[in-house]
Write a structure and sequence with these properties.
6-stranded mixed β-sheet; homodimer; 596 residues; 19 helices; alpha/beta
């Protein structure tokens, strides 16, 4: 359709996508990022620069969206940022950014003042166009019906002679709405701003989706996403541009702040701009709102080939997500250092390694807390890991403290095991209070699922780096990280003995995880189907899992909900994490029936 | 309108509202309740009995609604319950109940199989009519857009010659939709089934709402609500019936299972039943679906005057909510007993008293954990409370254990104070593990708001009975409970010295809460405006709060979010509790600006 409407006319446009890392609530800091990266874009000769969804406020802001003072601050900061860009000589560069706004007038069933997940075009010191997200995601980790009312506009802004349509994140994922009317609007470029959290293999899904929507819209599609950690979420960036045929034109390296600059050749707009209301094919109507910033194409120039980053393999992707998640939780919460227990086992070894990669080994404090049941090799292996990485280590034997409790309480069995775990937690919490470290919790997803952890013991801490990582992947990541070091000619950070030894909590003599749990290969496959795929008992057995094991594991998982509810946040890497994704009642007598 | 349409024709109907206590996930148990209470209704001569929203599954089921096996179990259990009622001789009594269903056919934008918050009419061994909630609440504690798609029907069922329309909970609170077309449908009775959680003064709001909707619908309105605790929520019942003029006809005692039976005189249906689709005044259309169970009025009988329970005063209401919340959390999670620390202060004294009222003093285990800073009167006061109530008490001095840590860690200041709190928690957790008690946490809302608690210390436990109760109300409840006992000629359960002494955590010599916090009257008023009303800094100062205190308290509240995230659930009694109601990011650099 575009080629029919604008036969032969093309215009060049240098587009910059600012894949940056905003911080929730830091409006001034985020505005600074907009100015800094707009300057870089201007220096790179860009004709247009775009920032992610809710760039000005960070994302997701949760109930801050309901606080009037916060909404007003976002609106004021947006206007101020537009003026500041102009004051700093950047007024000629159109800037697209996400921010938090509110509904100016009331619509049927929606009060005036209701929050909007909004998008603005900033130009020449003022806001040239505004719109709001139409499709509001309310599944998985998203709760946007709680906060926002839907937008009903597709802004189309003529920049350098090209009609650029803009939309927000979920508008791309759902049929109908603003993205659905892009072709009708005759846009030459569709620009979508995003706050899309990482999960495994999402990059493939995204590329497919972006390519499909580009073909549907009949135009080039640019996708800009934030990076960074925000509580449980890690944003991976993965900003990209695809042509009208769905072919990939440019892609940014994920998990890093990047300015993706691409020279695009696009259909030139030759018809007069015309705003109008059209059917959105989802039961609503969308107003196509036309604005002109610069009607004339830029003089022809020699385009540079845009960068296309290689996709990362699965383990590299997960590892970078965990490192970024830890780094940002530490940094954005005002910590400089972390502390965790180091048992000589694989979980705490991987957590310490991730932390060292995130904030430097000199800021990673580890505590060896040997008890009467700790084996010699545990201590030796932990010490070897400390030596290899240069961590800040100390040893605090816990026998005296455990015995002080035992004299009074005479605990046995589980109570005795939990006591050791809790005494350890009291030690690292005391060191955290004394020295102001963030405590990292070392539990993995298999443990969290089955409840094989001690509340206020090994589960105690402010952040859980491997909370969404199943045990089998803990090993895989450790091997991957060692292989990376070896490939670079460095000593592997994790001693091989830690990877090879059979897993044990060492809470009683000779204890092994396999005493009470099946092999982790078997367990993790079952947990994947029950927790992440939400299959019921019959479906699990039909999928090939052992019937007795299915019943036992379902019970373990269901019973441990109260423990998970008090677990700290940790970076989500799977389609369904414990926390924002999977929300079950604690009081819950549902037992999967034994017969279909 | 009704009087014009049915001049002079009236029919009698004995309506029973079953204000019962379902358990989430216990489909069989909940079905048993339906059968038992239907039998009682039949024995009382009722012509119709109604149960609350989602009666069959309990409410809210959260992500269980997304599990196919659970949805199918609900559907099967509904059919089975209809057959069972008939098998047990109750098939002639129409039974209205809530359950979980799924969409049979796909609608635009809504997949087939999407869950429904549904309502069924059971009669003669089968399901006579079905509908689903139209207005889905997605604010406060509710997330129903996450789970359900909206219904688009108003069932009108002719029973004993009266046309009875049925709707679900939020349908009553929002304009438009099924309740809005009740008048058009010409119903003689509107029956609304509810899962409406308690909060302070909600009974007044409800009565006003029900009266207004009755006037709008031009007919009698019956409101049935569940009772019971479900994690953070407490359902208070407060089932009621109002006439077409909004006058209260019947009301059940709250917080107790009750069958509210009322003889109603209603307009007799005289026009032929007619199903049709009508505009719902909210942008949607509703199908009025007419079904006939019994077309003829019952023979005239002498009506009995229905009961109208006196509303409870504010403190009585809150106290009953807390007792029911504790009882149901204990019972529904399979515990028989609780344990908590008893310091001699007001918070733990009130928690122990609530627990004793909930499950009997013989099941309430308390631990006195004196440290070197505990005053003599603290121990004496705690012992006196134990004696008055007959609690299960023991004393575990913590000095030896604290010293075992101190020898290794040499903590000072906050670290030393937190160490004592954490050693206490290790003790009660060990006793809980040994003896299988649920641990109760004794923190109040003022403390939780400001972060004046120790993570894994005094905040450790499975349930927090006064988590949503501010400190000033803690005292008020203690005085109220004592006055109740005195009025009944019994010894007040809480020694007056515990109520009168200045509050202290006794974590260092002579420590008082007022050393670092303002008077609780001042603090709680500010917390109310910041936490519950969500006022920003400027609005708080404009409301008359001291500017310096506002800034300090905002910082305290904002910084303590990470602690609250790991706090156990506790009964919600205010319009905004910490937990399901107030959802803020932990990583949050937003600081209320100092100038408007």
């Amino acid at each position: 359709m575009i080629s029919a409407a604008y036969p032969g006319d093309v215009a060049q446009l240098r587009l910059a996508l600012a894949q940056v890392n905003p911080t929730v609530g830091d409006l001034e800091g985020n505005a600074d990022l907009i100015v800094q990266w707009s300057r870089r874009a201007a220096e790179a000769g860009a004709h247009l620069v775009a920032f992610p969804e809710m760039m000005l406020t960070g994302y997701p802001v949760e109930d801050l969206a309901l606080r009037a003072s916060f909404v007003e601050a976002s609106r004021r900061t947006l206007e101020r940022t537009a003026r500041r860009l102009a004051d700093e000589g950047l007024g000629a560069l159109p800037v697209v950014t996400g921010y938090l706004d509110r509904l100016g007038v009331s619509r049927p069933g929606q009060p005036a003042g209701a929050p909007l997940n909004a998008l603005a075009w900033l130009h020449a010191g003022r806001v040239a166009a505004r719109s709001a997200k139409h499709h509001l995601p309310n599944y998985g980790v998203f709760d946007e019906f709680r906060y926002f009312v839907r937008g009903d506009r597709l802004p189309v802004v003529r920049v350098a002679g090209v009609d650029v349509a803009t939309a927000i994140c979920e508008d791309l994922w759902q049929d109908g709405g603003p993205v659905g009317v892009t072709r009708t609007a005759g846009a030459g470029l569709l620009l979508v701003i995003n706050g899309s959290p990482y999960e495994r293999s999402k990059d493939d899904v995204r590329l497919e989706l972006v390519a499909r929507r580009a073909r549907e819209a009949g135009c080039t599609l640019a996708y800009v996403n934030m990076i960074g950690g925000q509580d449980e979420l890690v944003f991976d960036g993965d900003s990209m541009i695809v042509g009208p045929d769905g072919g990939l034109l440019a892609r940014a390296e994920p998990f890093a702040e990047r300015l993706l600059v691409a020279d695009l050749t696009l259909p030139a707009a030759t018809t007069p701009p015309r705003s109008r209301r059209v059917d959105a094919a989802d039961g609503t109507a969308i107003t196509i709102e036309h604005t002109v910033i610069s009607a004339d194409p830029v003089p022809a120039y020699e385009p540079a080939p845009p960068p296309i980053a290689e996709p990362l393999d699965d383990l590299a992707e997960v590892y970078r997500a965990l490192v970024l998640g830890v780094r940002d939780y530490v940094r954005k919460n005002g910590f400089r250092s972390v502390i965790c227990g180091l048992s000589g086992g694989i979980d705490s070894a991987l957590v310490a390694t991730i932390a060292a990669d995130a904030i430097g080994p000199e800021n990673v404090h580890v505590v060896l807390l040997p008890s009467r049941y700790s084996s010699d090799h545990s201590v030796a292996d932990a010490e070897e890991l400390v030596r290899r990485q240069g961590l800040q280590a100390r040893t605090v034997p816990i026998n005296d403290m455990v015995e002080a409790f035992e004299r009074q309480l005479k605990p046995t069995g589980l109570a005795e095991e939990n006591l050791q775990a809790r005494v350890r937690a009291v030690v690292w919490m005391a060191l955290s209070n004394q020295e102001d470290h963030l405590v990292l919790t070392t539990g993995n997803k298999s443990e969290l699922a089955t409840g094989y952890s001690t509340l206020y013991g090994d589960s105690a801490g402010g952040f859980g780096p491997i909370k969404d990582v199943m045990k089998t992947m803990v090993w895989a990541l450790a091997r991957w990280r060692n292989a990376q070091a070896e490939a670079a000619g460095r000593t592997p950070p994790i001693p091989q003995r830690i990877i090879d030894k059979p897993p044990s909590a060492e809470l009683r003599p000779g204890q092994l995880d396999t005493d009470s749990l099946p092999d982790y290969e078997v367990l993790d496959a079952l947990l994947h189907d029950y927790v992440e795929r939400d299959l019921g008992r019959d479906a699990l057995i039909a999928a090939g899992h052992d019937a007795a094991l299915v019943e036992r594991v379902i019970r373990l998982v269901d019973r441990a909900e109260y423990k998970r509810r008090q677990y700290p946040p940790g970076p989500k890497i799977t389609p369904k994490n414990f926390g924002r994704d999977r929300r079950l009642p604690i009081t819950n007598r549902w037992r999967e029936p034994s017969t279909g």
